[in-house]
Amino acid sequence: MNWEEMRKRMDANCKKMQDKDVAAKVRGDIVGRYISHPFADGYAYYEIIRENKKTVRIEVVTGIGDDWVLPAWGEATSIKKDDAMDFLARRDMMAEIFGT
Asked: Are residues 59 and 31 in contact, defined by beta-carbon separation less than 8 angstroms?
């Protein structure tokens, strides 16, 4: 596969992740939204796949670039729901400020 094909595939996967995030946000749901966490020279991306009372289950998103996996989270884990909500609130605030 050449670079152009790989870039198109990564762009399509990233758009799919973002579209799923927007749809979940519009529904008022956090399942389907993603968390971006700074790591190395980029970000690790995790999708919220299940919501529990006090935790959420997250799974790494791949096929969108560097595909970083946080050592502390691995490929999938549960984190506090409050922490997930903080990640989403910060990302939403930055998107609002910068119009992205």
From this structure: no
| Model confidence pLDDT, tens digit, residues 41-57 | 999 999 999 999 999 99
Residue given tokens 């996967």 in the structure block: 13
Residues 8-13: contacts with CB under 8 Å, at least 24 apart: 9/63, 10/63, 10/64, 10/65, 13/61, 13/63, 13/64
Residue 84 confidence (pLDDT) above 70? yes
d(CA 91, CA 95): 6
